[in-house]
């Protein structure tokens, strides 16, 4: 796949010296779903706003579909759909007219069939003649997505799209995102919900303090999540791993009072049974054991903590 969004050496600083983005480099492949995780104030919204041309970068270069977002702003922006965090809609306007207006802003010809299909996909069609102020918060957020899709963008940015949305609506939106991907739309999602990244993303990125800490395929992260650690407490501490146990790649913990064995839960065999037998053969006595499993949330929290 080729990159549809390219961010090179991007920086954003303010007059008071605060750096919201620090030398960000990011390549987003066409047709993928990238989930961007990060705590509040990490720079997620600033990054999206800068790519979309809402915020002006201090330095660096951004291209969307090959167009420079500064020198070729109109061409680049026409390829982008943005669903912001804030719900800012005209309360007295109807759903259908709100979406039609957004399409017109991009100079697109009227296409009622297309807009009706978008509203149907978002379960908004039966409310197309309702005024915005009569809708629930979740439905208003769907209208924001419909507006962002009205001009048929190739890249869709979703900034915390399911914030404040109940679980059922959240899963409906995941299904919408999956359908958009099937149509070839590239989606960049910022979220606080770890399960959201696990459910729909192809790749996961972690940002903190304006810096990208990690960009990795979700499948690779799932492999890490598939690893479990068996902690074995010993009746007497050890200073080294006996040679007979070298093949297990054990780690010494708690000043020798425990050994940690990492194994793949998806493998045909864990090797635990033979390890316990070999422990006894090596003269080590076990007094207790427990298993621990890494999750995407633990990986995320660990990265952010290391960066603190």
UniProtKB/TrEMBL annotation:
InterPro entries: AAA+_ATPase, ABC_transporter-like_ATP-bd, ABC_transporter-like_CS, ABC_transporter_ATP-binding, P-loop_NTPase. Gene3D superfamilies: P-loop containing nucleotide triphosphate hydrolases. Residues 5-234 form the ABC transporter domain. One of its GO terms (molecular function) is ATP hydrolysis activity. Coiled coil: none annotated. Keywords: ATP-binding, Nucleotide-binding, Transport. This is ABC-2 type transport system ATP-binding protein.
């Amino acid at each position: 796949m080729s990159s549809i969004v390219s961010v090179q050496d991007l920086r954003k600083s303010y007059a008071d010296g605060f750096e919201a983005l620090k030398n960000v480099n990011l390549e987003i492949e066409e047709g993928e779903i990238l989930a961007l995780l990060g705590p509040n104030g990490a720079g997620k919204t600033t990054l999206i706003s800068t790519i979309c041309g809402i915020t002006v970068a201090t330095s660096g270069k951004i291209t969307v579909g090959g167009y420079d977002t500064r020198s070729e702003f109109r061409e680049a922006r026409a390829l982008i759909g943005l669903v912001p965090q804030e719900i800012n809609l005209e309360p007295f306007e109807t759903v259908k007219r709100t979406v039609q207006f957004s399409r017109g802003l991009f100079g697109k010809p009227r296409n009622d069939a297309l807009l009706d299909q978008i509203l149907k996909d978002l379960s908004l069609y039966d409310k197309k003649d309702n005024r915005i102020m009569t809708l629930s918060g979740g439905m208003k957020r769907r209208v924001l997505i419909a507006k962002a899709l009205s001009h048929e963008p190739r890249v869709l940015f979703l900034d915390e799209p399911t914030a404040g949305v109940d679980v059922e609506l959240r899963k409906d939106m995941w299904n919408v995102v999956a359908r958009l991907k099937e149509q070839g739309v590239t989606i960049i999602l910022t979220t606080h919900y770890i399960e959201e990244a696990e459910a729909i993303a192809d790749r996961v990125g972690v940002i903190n303090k304006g810096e990208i800490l990690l960009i990795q395929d979700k499948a690779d992260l799932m492999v890490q999540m598939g690893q479990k650690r068996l902690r074995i407490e010993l009746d007497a501490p050890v200073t080294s791993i006996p040679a007979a146990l070298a093949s297990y790649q054990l780690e010494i913990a708690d000043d020798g009072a425990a050994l940690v064995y990492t194994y793949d839960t998806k493998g045909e065999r864990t090797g635990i049974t033979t390890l316990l037998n070999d422990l006894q053969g090596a003269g080590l006595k076990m007094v207790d054991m427990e298993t621990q499993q890494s999750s995407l949330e633990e990986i995320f929290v660990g990265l952010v903590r290391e960066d603190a």
